[in-house]
Design a protein that fits this description.
single chain, alpha/beta, 2-enoyl-CoA Hydratase, Chain A, domain 1, Lyase 2-enoyl-coa Hydratase, Chain  A, domain 2, 11 helices, binds coenzyme A
């Protein structure tokens, strides 16, 4: 099943696990690698056997230590803009993905790696994880949405500090800041993500997709999130899942959603 160079894929128990697989380079994100993640997600977007996604890094040291510095070191401004725009497209695609995507953050998540975790719907970190946007050390601002999503997730006060100082955020601080949902040991990391996804998999898939879209509308100035919610609510009333969910409640049984 693996036609990709930089990622590994596995489907088990209705969960697609995408593993960034460049451990000798601390899973640094080159342009092809990001496109491979997007392609893998696209392949399984309509696959009913996949109800949720885990994105993680191989090895015990890094989720991803940033965009691949060796790839862009010789770029001029125009090429850099394209790299950034293409990266944004991938991050936006993940954020808008209609199935839940959890980042299982197993070590360093720096620069583009941190940005990649932030476009996922949930983040679970191992206790050795370190987040950060160290781009100012390279004479750059973040380029894959970090200045926007870090502010959205932890607020302007601390985001500005971390973006300007390039300080790393340890796992326990990330939990306090609301940057991650849980911190667990590295051994427990994937099981924790799986148990969250298995819980979500018992819910109505259309309602889950619509909820993701409504929440994302908060940060989209081109859309009125309240209107998006009203439409999502109405849309779900016309689904078989809604009839099944309410029927199951009234009949005191477990709902069996079909995503229709
Ligand atoms: N791009 C390209 N290669 C990277 C990389 C990146 N973002 N991060 C790490 N690597 C490579 C290193 O060059 C090294 O390769 P080599 O063995 O061929 O020399 C390998 O991964 C291991 O990294 P190393 O720096 O030796 O590990 P370390 O444990 O001493 O330090 C970090 C770990 C994460 C602190 C350090 O690698 C680092 O600062 N990375 C860059 C982080 C960054 O600035 N990210 C933002 C990029 S926009």
């Amino acid at each position: 099943m693996n036609e990709y160079k930089y990622i590994l894929l596995q489907i088990e128990d209705n969960i697609l696990t995408i593993t960034i697989n460049r451990p000798d380079k601390l899973n640094a994100l080159n342009a092809q690698l990001l496109q491979e993640i997007k392609a893998a997600l696209t392949t399984h977007r309509d696959n009913d056997a996949v109800k949720g996604v885990i994105l993680t890094g191989s090895g015990k040291k890094a989720f991803a230590a940033g965009a691949d510095i060796s790839e862009f070191a010789s770029f001029d401004g125009e090429r850099a803009k394209k790299l950034s725009r293409d990266g944004h497209t991938v991050m936006d695609y993940i954020e808008a993905y209609p199935k839940p995507v959890i980042a299982a953050v197993n070590g360093f998540a720096l620069g583009g790696g941190c940005e990649l975790t932030m476009c996922c719907h949930l983040r679970v970190a191992s206790d050795n994880a370190r987040f950060g946007q160290p781009e100012v050390n390279l004479g750059l601002p973040p380029g894959y949405g970090g200045t926007q999503r870090l502010v959205q997730l932890i607020g302007k006060t601390k985001a500005m500090e971390y973006l300007l100082t390039a300080d790393m955020i340890k796992a326990d601080a990330a939990l306090q800041l609301g940057l991650v949902n849980y911190v667990v040991s590295q051994d427990e990391l994937l099981d924790k993500c799986k148990s969250i996804l298995q819980k979500i998999a018992t819910k109505g898939p259309i309602a889950v997709a619509q909820t993701i879209d409504c929440v994302n509308a908060v940060a989209d100035e081109s859309r009125n999130g309240f209107e998006v919610e009203i439409n999502a609510f109405g849309t779900c009333f016309d689904t078989e899942d809604f009839k099944e969910g309410t029927g199951a409640f009234l009949e005191k049984r477990k709902a069996e959603f079909k995503g229709k």
